[in-house]
Design brief:
alpha+beta, globular, single chain
Length: 68
């Protein structure tokens, strides 16, 4: 899963400030997560260890292609 902050509706909002991607990358960026990494973040978020992924894709913005 490729997460590009420029395609997220939550960019520059309070939700962005509390997103795991912001915690990992700083203000913004692109993060490529493997399925097991995404599952680990989801589980750690569920039990309150890290902030959740707050990605909400904007329908009019181009999404990055998945890596091979």
């Amino acid at each position: 899963m490729i997460i590009d902050c420029d395609t997220c509706d939550m960019q520059a909002t309070r939700a962005c400030d509390d997103c795991i991607v912001t915690a990992l990358l700083g203000d913004h960026g692109i993060l490529d997560l493997a399925e097991d990494e995404r599952a680990a973040i989801d589980e750690m978020s569920r039990v309150g260890l890290v902030s959740p992924l707050r990605l909400r894709l904007h329908p009019d913005r181009e999404r990055p292609a998945a890596s091979q």
